[in-house]
Amino acid sequence: MADDPTVATYRIEDGIAWVSFNRPDKRNCMSPNLNRRMGEILDEIEFRDDFSVLVLKGEGSAWSAGMDLKEYFRETEAQGLGATRKAQRESYGWWRRLRWYQKPTIAMVNGWCFGGGYGPLYACDLAIAADEAQFALSEINWGILPGGGATKVVVDLMPLRDAMYHAMTGELIGGQKAAEWRLVNESVPLARLEARVTELAKVLQGKNPVALKATKDAIRRVKEMTYDNAEDYLVRAQEAANSFDNEGRKEGIKQFIDDKTYKPGLGAYDKSKQVDA
Ligand code: COA
């Protein structure tokens, strides 16, 4: 159990779970306590049926200023290797949970995003930033390499030259540049950020949830596969998804071919008409 449950919070409204880093006075840096609480929240809410999209946001001026240099590094290291490994398990653990989360996830990057913050950033399926947000791999500025997955994140998301420049200089980039370098999908003025994220969440809410989970997992899995392996995986993943929801797929075909009420190329079928077998 987290000692202080207020360091990460959530509220569920209109089918969206708004999960917050909530240490604004510490720029939402990730302490062991915060990591533990995030893990608990993800566990608590994952299969609730009153929300279908999770948004990860930061309270105050930061999204997350990365790992807590005092509580995560200095104080944990002082307790020995066992404590260090435990702190790593708890932080990497909730990021991994988020990468494979049941519901689609959106990072709403409202402000500072540093170093270790790239772990949860990457874990979210989609990311929308404020133009005013500031990103950096600041590790080089205090004398370590970008660990905790951060190096892997920039190599996965960015072109190599940009990843190298970003990691070796530690320079800040704004939301627009982060979008150009593909750290996030897009960047909008801070005043429009929540509205844009809500709009995107609504788009996801209109899709078949079984297909969304299968799709987001497939995107991450096939990235490292050969074409043949991916082809095989996708056949099996589709068949497995059908065993959870075959009716949605049939309804989608019916509304297009028989009812002629929508065109899949132009939008999603009407899920409310789906009759589950
Ligand atoms: N670890 C520990 N404490 C942190 C922190 C971090 N990563 N980021 C911020 N804090 C703390 C500060 O020590 C300060 O604590 P205090 O009020 O007890 O003195 C408080 O949060 C506010 O930070 P401050 O630096 O005064 O805010 P700012 O708005 O002027 O600057 C940052 C914001 C994010 C630019 C600055 O705090 C910073 O550089 N943080 C470190 C970022 C970093 O390198 N993270 C990578 C870790 S992997």
From TrEMBL:
InterPro entries, alphabetized: ClpP/crotonase-like_dom_sf, Enoyl-CoA_hydra/iso, Enoyl-CoA_Hydratase/Isomerase
Keyword Nucleus part of the UniProt annotation: no
Pfam family, one: ECH_1
Example GO molecular function: lyase activity
Enzyme type, top EC level: lyase
The keyword NADP appears for this protein: no
EC number(s) on file: 4.2.1.101
Gene3D superfamilies to which the protein is assigned, alphabetical: 2-enoyl-CoA Hydratase, Chain A, domain 1, 6.10.250.2850
Gene Ontology biological-process annotations: isoprenoid catabolic process
Signal peptide: none
Keywords in alphabetical order: Lyase
Domain of life of the source: Bacteria
Protein family per UniProt: Belongs to the enoyl-CoA hydratase/isomerase family.
UniProt name for this protein: p-hydroxycinnamoyl CoA hydratase/lyase
Organism: Phenylobacterium montanum
